Amino acid sequence: MDLGFSGTVTDFYHRYRRGYPPAVVDTLARTLGLTANDTTADLGCGTGQLTLPIARRVRSVLGIDPEPDMLAHARNAAAEQGVTNVDWIVGADRDLPALLRDRPALGAVTIAQALHWMDPGRLLPELRPFLRAGGGIAAVTNGEPLWLQDNAWSRALRGVLESWLDTTLTNGCGTDAASQQHYRDLLTAAGFEVTPATVEYTGELGIEQLIGGVYSAFSATQLPSPEERPRFAERVRDALAPHAPFAEHVRVTMLIGRTHGSRPCTIDG
Ligand SMILES: C[S@@+](CC[C@H](N)C(=O)[O-])C[C@H]1O[C@@H](n2cnc3c(N)ncnc32)[C@H](O)[C@@H]1O
Predict the structure, then answer these.
(1) What phi, psi does 30 have (nearest 5°)?
(2) Which residue has the higher pLDDT, 6 or 72?
(3) Is the CB of 86 under 6 A from ligand 1?
(4) The pLDDT of residue 2
(5) What pLDDT, on the 0 to 100 scale, is given for residue 263?
(6) How far is CA 223 from CA 51, 133, 161, 169, 215, in A?
């Protein structure tokens, strides 16, 4: 399967994609009632941005992603950080029933910035039998794409990208209100009690970080070649220079669905 998360794109993803602040992991652990005895799955785990901090809170994690190159970075990051309780598994949303069938029930399935790649209408009801009593699902987004934010530098970036790719860019990758409502409705229809939560923070990006972040979002076929990259980077620098510094407001959203009748509890409660 070629989703575009392969080759050099994954290097950029690993290096430049935002991680998740501790408040996000705290909120997930608390609301999902995760304990140190739990196993969770992180579906669409990518290079492990959410997998690794969750792994520090639970007994073990299944990090599942269809892209071997993403998993290779995740595996290296885990080794560098001394995280040893993650099984990295090549697989997609449709493979979950087969992957989970003979395993102990899960405390949670997290899906971070990845549900828009899946078939949530089929997936979410399918996951219920694999969750322990009181277990849940968290659909997480990690801020709007760099080129869709409501500020001058982001609009300038969108202009450069739309002209470079000769297209119009509108896809919020699951962060937009309509997608959030859709996911919430699907979780409810699948029998989950949904608690929405957000963590917001403001950060400042350097121009290299910004260009790296854009490269991380190209598919492998869209990524400018090494020879083209200086020209692309110059266009971005020229268009954005008048709008420095590049502050961004990041809104991490979580739709946390638990089985009915289960009460949130604390990690040590
Ligand atoms: C934008 S990345 C998110 C990675 C990571 N979870 C994060 O929060 O940064 C989306 C990930 O979803 C994976 N993905 C795409 N289609 C998928 C599918 N059908 N099932 C599971 N994962 C999928 C991609 O390979 C990629 O690693």
Answers:
(1) -70, -50
(2) 72
(3) no
(4) 53
(5) 46
(6) 26, 44, 12, 16, 6
CATH architecture of 8-145+171-204+247-259: 3-Layer(aba) Sandwich (3.40)
At residue 265, the pLDDT reads 45
Atom number in ligand 1 closest to CA 67? 25
Dihedral sign computed on CA atoms, order 5, 9, 15, 20: negative
Look up residue 129 and give its DSSP letter.
Answer: G
Strands (E), the chain: 39-43, 60-65, 86-90, 106-112, 131-142, 192-205, 246-259
Q: Mind listing the pLDDT tens digit for each residue in 211-265?
A: 999 999 999 899 999 999 999 999 999 999 999 999 999 999 999 999 865 544 4
- As a whole number of angstroms, the distance between CA 213 and CA 14 comes to 10
User: According to the model, what pLDDT value does residue 269 have?
Assistant: 34
In the chain, where the domains are located:
8-145+171-204+247-259
Token look-up 């083209």 returns 228
Q: Is the CB of 216 under 6 A from ligand 1?
A: no
Per cent of the chain over pLDDT 90 is: 92
Measured from the CB, is residue 128 less than 6 Å from ligand 1?
no
The residue contributing the CA closest to ligand 1 atom 11 is 44
Query: For the CA atoms of 185, 186, 187, 190, what is the dihedral angle to 10 degrees?
Result: 120
pTM: 0.94
